[in-house]
């Protein structure tokens, strides 16, 4: 599928190639604000090949270039060739794309049906999900939707932290300090209390960590009591997690925790030893990675015989490769794990699994004003509390704005708006940046926020309903590009497929979010300046209704890629 905006870009480059006879680094740029052009081609890379200055080349191209139907004019500006779209043909093409594709407008065929495994969310069992778990969960879910929209076959895998040394900690604390009544009423809350208490006690008495390690070893060796309690912890945790995922409307194709790979680690270790990749070092089994520029070795097995998350992640990756045959595996995990994934990917290549694209989609931390969150230190904001507060604030807004709705309708709109606000507050920011948690910013219901975008959709749908709520069939009238507000909407709608491609390429959901905010601003300018249903002619009315329908479609689709719903009334 070649969309109109892409077709115009290709036509511009081909027109220059025909004249210049060279394809040395030709590229397209967006002219800065205030420049009366839609595309720009820098001529600097052509200077050496054509033995002329960029200014001379741009002037020559402007005089001689033959433009296709989507391009209207060419002008030289310094070392740039500036091009403008033929508004009527361009607008007709864009609106034809939107009408023809409907909710699939902006979809790509980049994936070609190839499989991509996306590892995201991955909370640790026996702890409540904090607001810090939000980032992996919703960034991963957005990347899942983006890949699906781009023609991939995504597989979402929630790699639960249900194994490892923390269970030695919990098993010791459970036997030492359990409040049985509290555990019966709120098992996850009591387990969190025990986890925090252990950390405090172990800082006073470090020998407790040795006892916790013994419990962990008993668990790995299959001790019946340890295994029974572990199963109980997992069961309680899964129920608590599912409540959060239901509110966020996040789904997974597989939920395979670290424990699923317990019986698969032996093969990894044996293979690494047999191939001479793993070596003994002070009783531990390690993989040295100095030859690929990583000074810290990967530890496969500790000196006491226990495995580590390195081992489990290797077993996990190999299982995914053999089971799903992916072209890519994405790990949506915080930036503080960068070294771990460098070690993991390098070791997988040493083991012969080098024909897959491994990607660590890293992100910054959500921090409290007083510093980094720490569950073991009890310094944490729980995600369920944030979601509940968001829905409560949205419910008050719905009561004020839509008192005529039924109680179930108010609850549903409050859920869509409140949860959307939480997601957008995160996804609208570049994932690599740290975020300082702020209740008001996280729960914003105005300004650059999901409710503002949702309201844009609701307003557009309101116009369409008032006009009969049916597609405005017929050609797009070029007159409907005559005002700055109309043309801004045409350009914005035409750019949506480019935005999807950019977000996919960089694994940046914020690119979509920022685009939608700009689209909403353009629409509100249009709404205030341009009559739609009272247009001067039937053709103009029809074309402006098409613009409004295009905004509603793209807003719904774009927010859907971010996992944000849209209400019909608000």
UniProtKB/TrEMBL annotation:
CDD domains referenced in this protein's UniProt entry, alphabetically: Anticodon_Ia_Arg, ArgRS_core
Domain DALR anticodon binding: 453-570
GO molecular function (one): ATP binding
Keywords of the record: Aminoacyl-tRNA synthetase, ATP-binding, Cytoplasm, Ligase, Nucleotide-binding, Protein biosynthesis
Location of the Arginyl tRNA synthetase N-terminal domain: 3-85
Stored SUPFAM superfamilies: Anticodon-binding domain of a subclass of class I aminoacyl-tRNA synthetases, Arginyl-tRNA synthetase (ArgRS), N-terminal 'additional' domain, Nucleotidylyl transferase
One biological process term in Gene Ontology: arginyl-tRNA aminoacylation
UniProt EC number: 6.1.1.19
Superkingdom classification of source: Bacteria
Catalysed reaction equations from the record: tRNA(Arg) + L-arginine + ATP = L-arginyl-tRNA(Arg) + AMP + diphosphate
Pfam families noted in UniProt: Arg_tRNA_synt_N, DALR_1, tRNA-synt_1d
SMART domains for the chain: Arg_tRNA_synt_N, DALR_1
Signal sequence, renumbered to the chain: none
InterPro entries in the record: Arg-tRNA-ligase, Arg-tRNA-synth_N, Arg-tRNA-synth_N_sf, ArgRS_core, DALR_anticod-bd, Rossmann-like_a/b/a_fold, tRNAsynth_Ia_anticodon-bd
The protein's assembly and partners: Monomer.
PANTHER family referenced in this protein's UniProt entry, alphabetically: ARGININE--TRNA LIGASE, CYTOPLASMIC, ARGINYL-TRNA SYNTHETASE
Protein family according to the UniProt entry: Belongs to the class-I aminoacyl-tRNA synthetase family.
Protein name: Arginine--tRNA ligase
